[in-house]
Amino acid sequence: MHKLKTALLLFCLFVFAAGCGEGTESSQEDTTSIEIKKNGSIVQHIVEDFSAEYYNLDELEQTMQDEIASFESTSENGKVELEKVQEKDGKVYVDVQYEDAECYTAFNQMTVFAGTVSDAYNAGYSLDVTLYSNTDGDGASIGKEELLEMGDRHLVIVEEAVKVKTPGDILYFTNDVSPSERADEVTVSGDENLSYIVYE
Fold it and tell me: Which of 53, 99, 115, 199 is the most exposed place for a label (fewest CB within 10 A)?
C-alpha cells in the first residue's frame, strides 16, 4: 500500500506495525467501498480485519478523530466526519463522510471525481477513454466523441481499487471495472490509472 487512504490504515501501520486486510460483514457491507450521494458527499465504508488481541477500538477511534482534526485544521478542502466505528466478529467497520469528492481526494491523496461529464471536461480530465456498456450484454463500447455528447450524465472517476456505489443506475465503465448484480454498484480492480464510471 503506497499511500495511507484512511486513519484506520495509519493506526494499523504505525500504532501496531501490522497491516490490515479486507474482511466481511454479515449485514450491509462485505468489503471496503465508496458511496456517492445525490448531494455530492461521499461516504467511505471501510471493512478491515481487527482480530489481533492488542487492537483497541477506542484507541482506533481516537486515532481517526485526531487524523480528521489535523486535516481540518490545515486544509480548506471541506469537512470530514467519522460516522461509525464498530467491531464485530473480528472485523472493524468504519464509515467516514466527506463533504465532496475534492475533500475525499485531499484527505486520502487518492483521486475521486464526482460530477457531470461536462464538469470533468472543464476540470481538465481526459475523456479520451473507451467505455463499455453495463446494460448491453454484447459488450458495446463508446469513445470520447460519444462520451462528450453525454454532457449532463453523471461521471465518477477513481484512482483506487474499490467498490463504488452510485445514486443512479450505471451505464458505462472502463475495462478495469466489473459489474455486479446491482445496477448501481461496480468494483474497480485497477489502482494505477484513472477508472471511469458513467451513471444516470
Answer: 53
Cα–Cα separations (whole angstroms), residue 89 to 26, 27, 64, 163 = 9, 12, 21, 22
pTM of the complete model: 0.85
Count of alpha carbons within 13 Å of 8, Cβ hemisphere only? 25
* Residue ranges per structural domain of the chain: 7-108, 112-199
pLDDT in tens, 35-48: 999 999 999 999 98
Per-residue pLDDT reduced to its tens digit, 86-112: 988 888 899 999 999 999 999 999 999
Phi and psi at 48, nearest 5°, equal: -140, 160
Residue with cell 458513467: 198
Residues 6+ apart with CB under 8 A from 159: 110, 111, 112, 191, 193, 194, 195
The 3-state DSSP class for residue 101 equals helix
Query: Do residues 96 and 127 lie in contact, with contact meaning Cβ atoms separated by under 8 Å?
Result: no
**How far apart are alpha carbons 10 and 119 in whole angstroms?**
33
Instruction: Give the closest residue to 171 by CA, choosing from 148, 193, 152, 155.
Output: 155
Fold (topology level) of 7-108: Alpha-Beta Plaits (3.30.70)
Q: Distance (Å, rounded) from C-alpha 119 to C-alpha 196?
A: 14
